[in-house]
Every structure is written in structure tokens, then in C-alpha cells.
Amino acid sequence: MADLRRILASEGMESVATYLQSGNAVFSTGRQSRDKVRQEVERVIAAEFGFEVPVVLVTGPEISSVIKACPYRKEGDEDPTKVHVTFVEPMPPADVIAQIDLDAVAPEHLALGPGVIYMHLPNGMGRAVLPDLLARKTTTVTATTRNWRTVLALAEMV
Questions:
Q1: Cβ–Cβ contacts within 10 Å for residue 53, how many?
Q2: What is the pLDDT of residues 58-68, one digit of tens each?
Q3: For the whole model, what pTM was predicted?
Q4: Within this chain, do residues 90 and 121 fall inside the same structural domain, yes or no?
Q5: Residue numbers of the domain that contains 45
Q6: How do the residues of the chain divide into helix, strand and coil, expressed in percent and rounded to 5?
């Protein structure tokens, strides 16, 4: 993560910070184009580390909106490891998500939000079926999932 901070700072990102070993970085930039910033981060990661990785870029106001809109905030407050947020670009069509038989995965639940898919996984991620079903249905999008604790920590860092 120290290397990630270093390369982002060397590309002009400001106030670069990372969260644990999660692959998450928080930074500010004067650049206007979200796509250009995302492409630049992907380029410097590929150049420095020798592999391509898709980057999901979330702004401070967006992460605040994601937190406010979460239908599982109470469950996340009780146990932040049981609520997960999948950030997706682009958002998959609602009919694709509707193909998932939620009755078959109960008590697991999902809900759509602003650029995200929320999941409540009462038995934990390790035993959950829903994330795998979701991944199979959304193969044409770039997605990354974080637990509620990480989402809140990143929001605090912003």
C-alpha cells in the first residue's frame, strides 16, 4: 500500500491515504474528468506493478450518498461484517438483477442503490450464496465489494 500511495502522489494526486491492505486509496485531485483520473490510476498501477486492474472511482459525495441510502444501516451498525456494498460501473440493468431468485438465498437480501448493490448477509460473506450469483449475473460490469466497516472508514478518510 505504501507503493500505491507513492505512485499516486507521483502522478499529482494530493492527500493520498490508503486503508489497511484493502486496495483502497483516498486522494484529492484538481482534475475534472472522472474517467481521466480513473484511466490514469489504472495506467500507473499497470506501469508500476506489471498487471492491469480495473479501478472503481467513488467521490466523497457519492460515498456519503451510498451510506445515507443504505437500507441495511441498522444491520450494519449491529455487525458491519454482515453488510456489504458492491460498487458497480456501469450499473447492471434492473431486469438482470431481477433474475436472481432471492427466495432461494434467504435470509440473504440485496437492494439497489446509487451506483451500488447493497447486500445483507446474516451468515457472513464466507457462507453466502448471493455474492456468487450476483457476480455471475454481472460479468459485463466492473465491480468491487466492501464490507460496511470499510465503507464507513473510507467515508471518514474522505
A1: 12
A2: 999 999 999 99
A3: 0.90
A4: yes
A5: 2-49
A6: 45, 20, 35
